[in-house]
Design goal:
Length: about 240
């Protein structure tokens, strides 16, 4: 009943008016995850991610590097509807978002991140689920102040069958510590995703994510269109 008690407003998409002069960015995200079950309820995951972005004055989303990531997860599946996740270590190499030509040659900023999350789902009707994920992140940066960030994602997932699943969601990010009051809001994601289980040990997914972002170093929002392609491989399968 926890999910049903959340304010109704959280499921309403928060859409901010876009200034026609605002620069819109185009990014491509690639993510691969290797999962190893230690028991029926516990598994360890290793995640690799690479993001690319458009270059200066173009819309080619594969043009320049945006991010490289290595992250580990420890997942505990309490029951069918509740999962607890801890990331004891994550390394990010973040390249500058390109606004001008000189940004294409800027050196990346490095980040170490520790995270914890709880994800819950509740069946609404047959194969339709309300899904909520709440997380806290501690972000240690090489060149800027460290930040504690809160994030919450709420959405709807529909299981077409045992192999296919799709959904929509909204996720909000807030800086709880390490930023000015004017940058309490970090960014918002509105997305849709589709997953397909090719085999019992291999799952692929594709997502579209629209992001409204307020960078720490800026007073103006940025807007991004992101294409995410991901694969999850289970090293050992148990029926």
């Amino acid at each position: 009943m926890y999910l049903l008690n959340k304010p109704i407003i959280m499921i309403v998409l928060v859409i901010t008016s876009i200034d026609i002069k605002a620069q819109i960015h185009y990014n491509a995200w690639f993510r691969g995850t290797v999962s190893y079950p230690l028991s029926e309820k516990i598994k360890v995951e290793t995640e690799f991610q690479h993001r690319r972005q458009n270059g200066y004055e173009n819309k080619f989303m594969f043009d320049k590097s945006l991010m490289y990531t290595f992250r580990t997860w420890l997942q505990y599946q309490h029951n069918e509807n509740v999962k607890v996740s801890i990331s004891p270590f994550a390394y990010f190499s973040n390249y500058k978002i390109i606004h001008q030509k000189v940004d294409e040659k800027a050196a990346p900023n490095h980040e170490i991140r520790f995270s914890g999350a709880i994800e819950m789902q509740q069946r609404i009707f047959r194969q339709l689920y309300l899904v909520d994920r709440t997380a806290m992140e501690y972000r240690l940066f090489e060149k800027t102040s460290n930040i504690v960030r809160f994030r919450n994602r709420i959405g709807l997932d529909y299981a077409l069958n045992k192999k296919m699943r799709f959904g929509i969601y909204e996720e909000l990010f807030f800086n709880m510590r390490g930023s000015s009051a004017g940058h309490f809001f970090d960014h918002e994601r509105i997305g849709s995703h589709f997953e397909y289980k090719i085999t019992p040990t291999l799952k692929i997914g594709i997502s579209y994510i629209h992001i409204s972002r307020l960078p720490i170093t800026s007073e103006e929002k940025l807007y991004e269109n992101n294409l995410l392609i991901q694969a999850v491989c289970l090293l050992r399968y148990r029926k």
